[in-house]
Amino acid sequence: MFNSNVRLGFNVFWIVLGAVLLGLSVAEILDSSVYSGMGGALMAVGILQTVRIMKYRKDPTYKEEIEIKMHDERNTFLRMKSWAWTGYIVLLAEAVGCVAAMVLGKTTAQIVLGGAVCLMLLVYFAVYFVLKRKY
Q1: What backbone phi and psi angles, to 5 degrees, belong to 29?
Q2: How many CB atoms lie within 10 A of CB 130?
Q3: Is residue 105 left, alpha or beta, with left meaning phi > 0 and alpha meaning psi from -120 to 50?
Q4: How far is CA 123 from CA 53, 67, 71, in A?
Q5: Is residue 97 within 8 Å of 120, Cβ to Cβ?
């Protein structure tokens, strides 16, 4: 794991933020129960990631396993392909949802989904041109 000290700092931040949200929700300063759930989830993620970093630092076998997962060419290729497929699927689902919202007369949903499709295409073209110059 790169910068395990930085990651550890972020995990402590998530734990503290989660505790604050949970405490404010229990004290009824924040009205919605969403904040208590979010606080509990942030605390849980922070704690689990902290345990993971500690195991990474202390167990050389686990450290080697993680390093292989992070730097193996096959895994890197699979991660890139997974993101590419995810982008295609989400873009098509949003486009279909936009047309369905138009047919159903749901103007707000249509605008949001259409805007998301446009934003994704703009980001795609921008990244394409940047990568085209780089490679």
Answers
A1: -80, -40
A2: 10
A3: left
A4: 33, 31, 27
A5: no
How many helices and strands, by DSSP H and E, does the chain display?
5, 0
91: its two tokens: 């873009």
Structure tokens at 46: 């922070």
Query: What Cα–Cα distance (Å) separates residue 133 from each residue in 86, 94, 98, 123?
Result: 24, 29, 33, 16
Q: Please, are residues 41 and 18 in contact by the beta-carbon 8 Å criterion? A: yes
Task: Output the CA–CA distances (angstroms, integers) from residue 19 to 12, 34, 48, 134, in the order listed.
Answer: 11, 14, 15, 44
Q: pTM for this structure?
A: 0.63
Contacts of 51 (CB under 8 A, 6+ apart): none
Best CA proximity match to 15, nearest among 51, 33, 39, 35: 39
pLDDT digits (tens, 9 = 90+) for 78-118: 999 999 999 999 999 999 999 999 999 999 999 999 999 99
